From TrEMBL:
NCBIfam families: pheS. Keywords: Aminoacyl-tRNA synthetase, ATP-binding, Cytoplasm, Ligase, Magnesium, Metal-binding, Nucleotide-binding, Protein biosynthesis. Residues 119-340 form the Aminoacyl-transfer RNA synthetases class-II family profile domain. Its EC number is 6.1.1.20. InterPro entries: aa-tRNA-synth_II (IPR006195), aa-tRNA-synth_II/BPL/LPL (IPR045864), Phe-tRNA-synth_IIc_asu (IPR004529), Phe-tRNA_ligase_II_N (IPR004188), Phe_tRNA_ligase_alpha1_bac (IPR022911), Phenylalanyl-tRNA_Synthase (IPR002319), tRNA-bd_arm (IPR010978). It catalyses: tRNA(Phe) + L-phenylalanine + ATP = L-phenylalanyl-tRNA(Phe) + AMP + diphosphate + H(+). Its main location: cytoplasm. This is Phenylalanine--tRNA ligase alpha subunit. Its cofactor is Mg(2+). Transmembrane segments: none annotated. The gene is pheS. GO terms for molecular function: ATP binding; magnesium ion binding; phenylalanine-tRNA ligase activity; tRNA binding.
């Protein structure tokens, strides 16, 4: 009878367990609340014969106490478990996780370094549009209309308008600067250029150049030579030599190709310099008087020099990269090598 029932409840309490707040609540509903089995026992008091009421009451109060003690025990247990799992989230003794940080793209780094070198000797920065008109890309630079010199650079024209093209060189920016500024001019124009060429390890249809222009009274070829010599030493190291080879550009006279000693073999000859010990980094020359006049500068009073170099070419030599396509393929194995070392 009721003794057995109470024993069964006691056994159930002893067996009960809770590991989560939800299970704690179930325990409370089952054994503590008014509607629980223990609460139900008190309601039965009325049915118990008077002489047994006292004994029954004692038993019921005993179960109630056992249930409450067990409940406290379980609350404690669940709280402890909670604390442990929270502190496990922040283990201050662990070594820090390796955050991978990005690096600067080798072309950007090269461009920055070139700018830095020329800024220190008084060149400012100038930029121009990549979609250019015939005047700034060709005509003002002394490329006569229908002249074969235009074939030197395979050009992307805009369909239906042969007057507009993607600039083939940053020399278009020197025209814009000279049209808008009075000498003395000392400016550097880095930027993206386009040529309609097949993509290979050595050529791309999109690449970067940096143009330099210096216009003032009495600027001579010696100034050009010394400026580029200074640049080569700063960029590639003290022992670097510079060689000028006669060349032709419509906008400079005289014109010269700029070579530097091959840093891969140190001038001894290798497959990068094709055994010559020299590698080409760009073109240069004294600005043709026609170009100065086209831009509204008095060619009797002023002279100037200009040079243009390939940023990819310089980066390839600096970092010993053999294929120019790597710059634009975004292969992380390649780019990772340029991350700063922490
Ligand atoms: N614009 C020329 C080229 O792209 C390079 C150059 C610039 C040559 C300035 C002479 C002077 O080939």
């Amino acid at each position: 009878m009721y003794q057995e029932k109470i024993e069964a409840i006691k056994a159930a309490i002893a067996k009960a367990d809770a590991n989560t707040p939800e299970e704690l609540e179930s325990f409370r509903m089952e054994f503590i609340s008014k509607k629980s089995v223990v609460g139900g026992l008190f309601a039965e008091m009325g049915k118990i014969p008077n002489e047994e009421k006292r004994a029954f009451g004692q038993l019921v109060n005993g179960v109630k106490q056992i249930a409450e003690e067990k409940f406290q025990e379980l609350i404690e247990k669940v709280n402890q478990a909670n604390k442990k799992s929270k502190s496990a989230d922040i283990d201050l003794t662990l070594p820090p996780s390796n955050h991978e940080i990005g690096g600067i793209h080798p072309l950007t780094a090269t461009r920055q370094r070139i700018i830095e070198i020329f800024e220190r000797i008084g060149f400012n920065l100038s930029e121009g549009p990549e979609i250019e008109d015939d005047w700034h890309n060709f005509t003002a630079l002394n490329f006569p209309e229908n002249h074969p010199a235009r074939e030197m650079q395979d050009t992307f024209f805009i369909e239906k308008n042969p007057d507009i093209a993607l600039r083939t060189h940053t020399s278009s920016v020197q025209v814009r600067v000279m049209e808008n500024q009075k000498p003395p001019i000392r400016t550097l124009s880095p930027g993206r250029v386009y040529r309609n060429e097949a993509i290979s390890a050595r050529a791309h249809c999109i690449f970067h150049q940096v143009e330099g222009l210096y216009v003032d009274e009495n600027v001579g070829f010696a100034d050009l030579k010394n400026t580029l010599y200074h640049f080569a030493k700063e960029m590639f190291g003290k022992g670097t030599k510079v060689r000028f080879r006669p060349s032709y550009f419509p906008f400079t006279e005289p014109s010269a190709e700029i070579d530097i000693t091959c840093m891969i073999c140190g001038g001894k000859g290798c497959n990068v310099c094709k055994g010559t010990g020299w590698v080409e980094i760009g073109g240069s020359g004294m600005v043709d008087p026609n170009v100065l006049e086209n831009c509204g500068i008095d060619s009797k009073k002023y002279t100037g020099f200009a040079f243009g170099m390939g940023i990819e070419r310089i980066a390839m030599l600096k970092y010993q990269i053999k294929d120019l396509r790597l710059f634009t393929e975004n292969d992380v194995r390649f780019l990772k090598q340029f991350r700063p070392i922490l």
